[in-house]
Amino acid sequence: MRLILLGPPGAGKGTQARRLLERFGIIQLSTGDLLREAAATGTSAGLKAHEIMSRGELVPDDMVVAIVAERLSRPDCAKGFILDGFPRTVGQAEALYRLLHDKGLSLDAVVQIKVDEDILVQRVEARVKEMEARGETVRADDTPLVLRRRLAAYHAQTEPLVDYYLRKGLLVSVDGMLPIDQVTAEIEALLAKLPRAGAG
Ligand code: ADP
């Protein structure tokens, strides 16, 4: 099973990805997490990425694609994967198509998680308060101002992927405003209907 989770920041992509990987025994690949790891290494590329991310903008395609290409070449991706936060631009989607095509692979589905944006902002604010209450470090880009920039980047650069994958016949959509368990159930029901579901 090779899946993409598509949706604005705070839509619950990470939460749903973690549940689906338990269910399907595949791995989750979050470019946000991979970029934060790269930033923590302190290399010049990592520091550049960190600066861009804390502004709420998108890291250049070539850097993200290189990270994903390296990750997808590892053996633990053989059974399948869930991409969370990638692709985020049409250029990245095309690069992903080529990467998979070269390995004789293709995507099974792109799951769009639809949300109401006002509620989204409230969710992120609540998440920040909960993390602060637990004494956890809050991400530098989880402030209301930077979240608005991330949403703007989503609309300008990522939302065109909805049409892109619709035209490819890969898009399925779920209502991300339902309770977490119901969103998972909806996604599982949609995946069960796919012609190649479970085929690896
Ligand atoms: P969220 O989905 O909540 O915005 P992520 O952890 O997926 O959080 O991403 C955090 C930041 O990492 C993004 O705002 C962006 O700067 C950077 N990033 C993550 N994935 C990509 C990508 N595919 N292309 C460009 N930048 C990315």
TL;DR of this structure?
This protein has helices spanning 13-24, 31-40, 44-55, 61-72, 90-102, 117-133, 144-158, 160-167, 180-192, and strands spanning 2-6, 27-30, 81-84, 109-114, 171-175. The chain is an alpha/beta fold and 200 residues long. The longest helix has 17 residues, at 117-133.
What is this structure's SSE topology?
Blueprint lengths: L1 E5 L6 H12 L2 E4 H10 L3 H12 L5 H12 L8 E4 L5 H13 L6 E6 L2 H17 L10 H15 L1 H8 L3 E5 L4 H13 L8
Parallel strand pairs: 1-3, 1-4, 2-3, 4-5
Helix pairs in contact: 1-9, 2-3, 4-5
Bound molecules: adenosine-5'-diphosphate.
Adenosine-5'-diphosphate (ADP) binds next to helix 2 and helix 3.
The tally of helices reads: 9
Q: Under CATH, the topology is which?
A: Rossmann fold
Order of helices and strands: EHEHHHEHEHHHEH
Could you give the distance between the termini?
5 Å
> How many structural domains are formed by the residues?
1
Judging from the principal axes of the Cα atoms, what is the shape? Answer: globular
Strand content: 5-15%
What is the quaternary state of this protein? single chain
